[in-house]
Amino acid sequence: MSSRVLLILILLLTLCGAGFVRAQEPPAFDGERAMQLLVHQCEMGPRTPGSEGNLRLRTELLEAARRWGLRATTHCFEATMTLGESPVELCNIIISAGPATGPRLWLGAHYDTRPVCDRDPNEAARDEPLTGANDGASGVAVLWHLLELMAEQPPPRPVDLIFFDGEDAGISGRPTSYCVGSTRLAGTLGDFDNPLTGLEPEGLILLDMVGDADLAIPMEGYSLRAARPLVQKVFQRAAELGLEAFLPVPGQAVYDDHVPFLQQGIPAVDLIDFEYPPWHTTGDVPARCSPRSLAQVGRLVTDLVYRP
């Protein structure tokens, strides 16, 4: 083979390789679009378990996924809640995209809202239900927009988006009274009626309270203790992308929807900014959230989906 022919072959392979890389580049995550979806959820009213708003949000997510040709199912059961209506039917939502086989990435967020604003400085407002712009709608908004992107550009890896119900109806000071939906879902892995049974996850990345206008996400304590390699991978990717909201420093341990999965031996990372003054108050409204914050989190998870 002449040196000229060899050079042409090398150039062709380089061009083909460059084309392949371009085809795999993540789609652009739009923080403004995610903000629209956050506001849309808040306009539904309270999304407490069993409420009209909860059912409406669940229906819209399922209908959108099926309309876009994605696999969507529910994991429903009756539960007794410590706050709010009880007993009530809770429904976790699982929406899948990408290839059917291979190590899967699980991305989660809770779509219910707290029945009361028990930390509100105005005592008269403490029985009001939470709007839940940041605490609930922010993580869902990021995953909802990601659904739109995956419908347009199927991901190269298997991805399951998990929307947890019944996360926020617990009693303050009693951590295990929270996360009812995720506890049941993780605790029944292996059961025939669990949509996650038989799947092989690389791990779970949970999005909770990721819309704060002053976003700062440290390495959550339980995640760092039990899933350090996955935590390091996620925060290293954030650094590579130049996402300054992600702080590679240890944060406090937060009992959240990732804990039941850690207890089952599944690596799980909670991306949460727990330093949020309007938490569990009437002040948790869209005005306290930012498209820029949503864009940073959305860009990170989109990159992890499209660049495993």
CATH superfamily: Zn peptidases
Radius of gyration: 20 Å
Provide the low-confidence segments as ranges: 1-23
Proper CATH architecture: 3-Layer(aba) Sandwich
CATH topology: Aminopeptidase
Largest sheet: 6 strands, mixed
Query: Which strand-content bin applies to the residues?
Result: 15-25%
Helix and strand pattern: HHHEEEHEHEEHHEHEH
- Provide the helix percentage: 25-40%
Mean pLDDT: 93
**Cα separation of the termini:** 38 Å
* Outline: globular
Q: How many structural domains does the protein architecture include?
A: 1
* CATH C-level: Alpha Beta
Adjacency order of strands in the biggest sheet: 1-2-4-3-5-8
Protein structure class: alpha/beta
> How many individual helices?
9
Number of DSSP E strands = 8
Structure write-up:
- The chain is α/β, with parallel strands linked by helices and about 300 residues long.
- The chain has a single domain (about 25-305), classed as 3-Layer(aba) Sandwich (Aminopeptidase), CATH 3.40.630.
- It contains 9 helices and 8 strands.
- It has helices spanning about 5-25, 30-45, 50-65, 135-150, 180-185, 220-225, 230-240, 260, 290-305, and strands at about 70-80, 90-95, 105-110, 160-165, 200-210, 215-220, 245-250, 270.
- Strands 1-2-4-3-5-8 form a 6-stranded mixed sheet, with helices on both faces. A two-stranded parallel sheet has the order 6-7.
- Helix 2 packs across helix 4 (about 135-150).
- The radius of gyration is 20 Å and the shape is globular.
